[in-house]
C-alpha cells in the first residue's frame, strides 16, 4: 500500500500487512529464524551484496519478514526512509550514536536527555575517546556556537526527559546541517503518529518501542528510523554491534501499532485532564505539560506536534519527602515503576538535579512524573485527591 495519500488511522491499520501472501491471514506470521537457507551457491554469494537492503532476508539477526513489517510500518507512518528494530529503546539510542562517531569526535547532547543515554555518553563514549558537550535544551539556533569541526551529531529529545522542555528542532537542525552535523532525536514521547520528525529536519529518529508502540508493558523493543542518506551508515552500525529484536517482541510491537491512534487519543485526553486538575491543587507549584496553554513550550508544541501522550511532570511546593512518601505509598490506581506508555497509570518521584550539568534545575520542592493511563479520569483524580489528603495529614503531624 502506498502511504503517500493515506491518513494516519488508515496507515496504522494496513501498513505491513499482505494477507494475499500469507494464505489470507490478517496478521503477518511470526518468523522464528536464525539460519536462512539459499537454493544454490550463487544465491548464497548474492546475499552478501543485498544484505544492506531494507527488504533483504539473509540471516535472522538482520531481520525476517516479521521484523520488516514493523520496521517499514513505523518508518512509513513517521515519514522516514526505513526502520531498524533492536532490542530496547536504549539500544536504539546507543547504536544510533555509535554509528556516527569514532575516537576524537564530538557529540552535542541535550541536557534534558534520558538518564541512561547520558550515562552512556559519560562512560562508554568517553572511554572510546568521544567527547560529549551537554547543552541547554532551549538553545535553539544558538546551538551553532557550540558546534566544532569534529562535531558529528546533535542529539535532541523533545519534550525533555523529566522536565518536558520542547526543543526548537527545525532551528537546531538548520544550524547542525549547515556545519555538517547530523541530527538525532529521541521521539518516543511524540511517537511516529504525533511528531513527524523528518519534516522538522531530523536525520535519525529513535523510539523506545517498549512504550507506546508496544503499549501493553510486556515487551522490550527499540526502533530506529532514518533518512535515506543515513540508512546504510546506521544499518552497518547496528549490524556491527550485534543488535536485533526478538521475533515475539516484534509481533507485540506490530499488534500495538494497530491501536496506537485510539490509545494515544485517550492518553492525551487523560493526561491533559489530570494536568489541568493538578494546576488547581494548592500542593502543586508547577505542572510540566507542553499541551497546557500556559506551558513555556506550548507554542512550539502546537507547531511541531499533533497531539500529546500521557507522560508529564509536576513540582510540589516544598514539603518533607516523608510526606510525599505517604502520598505515593497508598495510591490504588497508580503503579510505581519505571518505563511508561502502557495502558496503566504510573507515578514516580524524580530528581532532575541528578541528571543536569549544562543547566540548573532550581525547583524548590520535590518533583513527580505521571503517566496517565487508560483508566476513567474521575477515578484517577479521586486516587490522587486521596493521596494529597495523606500528604497534608503527614505535613500537619510534623
UniProtKB/TrEMBL annotation:
Pathway: Amino-acid biosynthesis; L-methionine biosynthesis via de novo pathway; L-homocysteine from L-cystathionine: step 1/1. It comes from the Bacteria. Its EC number is 4.4.1.8. InterPro entries: Cys/Met-Metab_PyrdxlP-dep_enz (IPR000277), Cys_b_lyase_bac (IPR006233), Cys_met_metab_PP (IPR054542), PyrdxlP-dep_Trfase (IPR015424), PyrdxlP-dep_Trfase_major (IPR015421), PyrdxlP-dep_Trfase_small (IPR015422). The keyword 4Fe-4S does not apply. GO terms for biological process: L-cysteine catabolic process to pyruvate; transsulfuration. It catalyses: an S-substituted L-cysteine + H2O = a thiol + pyruvate + NH4(+); L,L-cystathionine + H2O = L-homocysteine + pyruvate + NH4(+). Its cofactor is pyridoxal 5'-phosphate. The modification N6-(pyridoxal phosphate)lysine is found at residue 211. Keywords: Lyase, Pyridoxal phosphate. GO terms for molecular function: cysteine-S-conjugate beta-lyase activity; pyridoxal phosphate binding. Residues 1-26 are annotated as: Disordered. Belongs to the trans-sulfuration enzymes family. NCBIfam families: cysta_beta_ly_B (TIGR01324). This is Cystathionine beta-lyase. It comes from Denitrobaculum tricleocarpae.
Amino acid at each position: 500500500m502506498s502511504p503517500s495519500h493515506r491518513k494516519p488511522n488508515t496507515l496504522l491499520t494496513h501498513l505491513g500487512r499482505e494477507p494475499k501472501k500469507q494464505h489470507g491471514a490478517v496478521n503477518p506470521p511470526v518468523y522464528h529464524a536464525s539460519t536462512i537457507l539459499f537454493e544454490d551457491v550463487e544465491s548464497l554469494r548474492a546475499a552478501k551484496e543485498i544484505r544492506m537492503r531494507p527488504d533483504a532476508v539473509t540471516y535472522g539477526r538482520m531481520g525476517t519478514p516479521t521484523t520488516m513489517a514493523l520496521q517499514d510500518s513505523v518508518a512509513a507512518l513517521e515519514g522516514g526512509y526505513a526502520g531498524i528494530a533492536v532490542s530496547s529503546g536504549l539500544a536504539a539510542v546507543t547504536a544510533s550514536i555509535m554509528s556516527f562517531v569514532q575516537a576524537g569526535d564530538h557529540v552535542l547532547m541535550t541536557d534534558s536527555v534520558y538518564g541512561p543515554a547520558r550515562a552512556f555518553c559519560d562512560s562508554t563514549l568517553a572511554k572510546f575517546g568521544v567527547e560529549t558537550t551537554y547543552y541547554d535544551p532551549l538553545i535553539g539556533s544558538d546551538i551553532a556556537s557550540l558546534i566544532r569541526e569534529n562535531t558529528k551529531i546533535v542529539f535532541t529529545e523533545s519534550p525533555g526527559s523529566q522536565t518536558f522542555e520542547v526543543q526548537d528542532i527545525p532551528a537546531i537542525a538548520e544550524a547542525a546541517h549547515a556545519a555538517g552535523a547530523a541530527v538525532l532525536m529521541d521521539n518516543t514521547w511524540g511517537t511516529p503518529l504525533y511528531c513527524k520528525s523528518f519534516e522538522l529536519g531530523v536525520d535519525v529518529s529513535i523510539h523506545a518501542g517498549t512504550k507506546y508502540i508496544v503499549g501493553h508493558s510486556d515487551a522490550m523493543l527499540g526502533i530506529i528510523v532514518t533518512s535515506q542518506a543515513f540508512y546504510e551508515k546506521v544499518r552497518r552500525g547496528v549490524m556491527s554491534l550485534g543488535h536485533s529484536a526478538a521475533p515475539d517482541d516484534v509481533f507485540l510491537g506490530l499488534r500495538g501499532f494497530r491501536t496506537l491512534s485510539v490509545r494515544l487519543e485517550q492518553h492525551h485526553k487523560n493526561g491533559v485532564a489530570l494536568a489541568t486538575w493538578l494546576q488547581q491543587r494548592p500542593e502543586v507549584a508547577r505542572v510540566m505539560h507542553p499541551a497546557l496553554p500556559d506551558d513555556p513550550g506550548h507554542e512550539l508544541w502546537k507547531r511541531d506536534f499533533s497531539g500529546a501522550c500521557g507522560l508529564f511532570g509536576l513540582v510540589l511546593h516544598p514539603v518533607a519527602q516523608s510526606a510525599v512518601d505517604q502520598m505515593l505509598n497508598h495510591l490504588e490506581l497508580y503503579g510505581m515503576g519505571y518505563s511508561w506508555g502502557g495502558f496503566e497509570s504510573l507515578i514516580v518521584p524524580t530528581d532532575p538535579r541528578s541528571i543536569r550539568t549544562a543547566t540548573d534545575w532550581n525547583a524548590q520542592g520535590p518533583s513527580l512524573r505521571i503517566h496517565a493511563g487508560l483508566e476513567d479520569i474521575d477515578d484517577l483524580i479521586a486516587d490522587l485527591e486521596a493521596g494529597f489528603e495523606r500528604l497534608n495529614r503527614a505535613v500537619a503531624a510534623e
